[in-house]
UniProtKB/TrEMBL annotation:
SMART domains: IG (SM00409), IGc2 (SM00408)
MF-aspect GO terms: cell adhesion molecule binding
Transmembrane regions: 196-214
Swiss-Prot/TrEMBL keywords: Disulfide bond, Glycoprotein, Immunoglobulin domain, Membrane, Transmembrane, Transmembrane helix
UniProt-listed InterPro entries: Cell_adhesion_signaling (IPR051275), Ig-like_dom (IPR007110), Ig-like_dom_sf (IPR036179), Ig-like_fold (IPR013783), Ig_I-set (IPR013098), Ig_sub (IPR003599), Ig_sub2 (IPR003598), Immunoglobulin_dom (IPR013151)
Name this polypeptide is given: TMIG1 protein
Single GO cellular component term: plasma membrane
GO biological processes: cell-cell adhesion
One matching Pfam family: I-set
Species name: Ibidorhyncha struthersii
Length: 223
């Protein structure tokens, strides 16, 4: 019976590739005795084809392949019977891309979260370092949160001893990325700042003096 093939695959398949180089997809009508029009779709959207690239054989090129193409499905369909189709899903391999540094200042006894955002395929593994040494994750002091793209380290109620450089290292079989966080722990501000207390005392003192001046006649009469 009539069927299609994409890159010699007659059933849906996954195509492994890397970001950068182009990928060509060729759809061919099999076992047809007449001219058959073909359609291409990227996800749910139809791909525009030139007139000479629609009948019995149709080629499309993804160039350049980007990280955002990972997981995208391309489907070739028979125009007169769209149930006849073959799909290919791109499996785009790329290393984690994580660089840079960030400086953070936080008061004592407050919580702070260090966040690394890094995509990769295959998924990367994460390690945290402090001053170039593996960070020992003390219970009730550190919390880790991780998804396929987000890696976070939270420090609970920071102390002056937490000063230092924290490094997020993200590794996959294709490479690694890293980001530094320079953490400075500042003195805890008093609940009532000294400047505010002094200002309040001055205001009260001036108010009392003005009150005494305003009532000086009555005060003198009493004396």
């Amino acid at each position: 019976g009539l069927e299609l093939s994409v890159n010699n695959h007659a059933a849906d398949f996954s195509l492994s590739t890397t970001a950068g180089p182009p990928v060509s997809l060729s759809c061919l009508v099999q076992n047809s005795s007449q001219a058959e029009e073909l359609l291409w779709y990227r996800g749910d959207g139809q791909v525009d084809l030139k007139d000479g690239n629609k009948v019995n054989i149709s080629n499309i090129c993804v160039s350049p392949v980007a990280e955002s193409d990972n997981g995208v499905t391309f489907t070739c369909k028979l125009a007169r019977d769209k149930s006849v189709q073959v799909s290919v899903t791109l499996d785009v391999k790329f290393p984690p891309q994580l660089t840079g540094e960030e400086s953070l200042q936080i008061e004592e006894e407050r919580d702070v979260t260090l966040s690394c955002n890094a995509k990769s395929n295959p998924q990367a593994q994460t390690a945290w370092y402090r001053n170039n040494n593996t960070l020992i994750l003390e219970q009730n002091r550190y919390q880790l949160y991780q998804t396929s793209e987000v890696f976070q380290l939270s420090i609970i109620k920071v102390q002056k001893s937490d000063n230092g450089t924290y490094t997020c290292v993200v590794k996959s079989p294709l490479g690694e990325g890293r980001k530094d966080f320079h953490l400075t722990v500042a003195d805890k501000k008093p609940l009532f700042p000294k400047e505010a207390v002094i200002a309040a005392v001055v205001v009260v003192t001036v108010t009392v003096l003005f009150g005494i001046v305003a009532r000086k006649d009555k005060i003198f009469k009493v004396w």
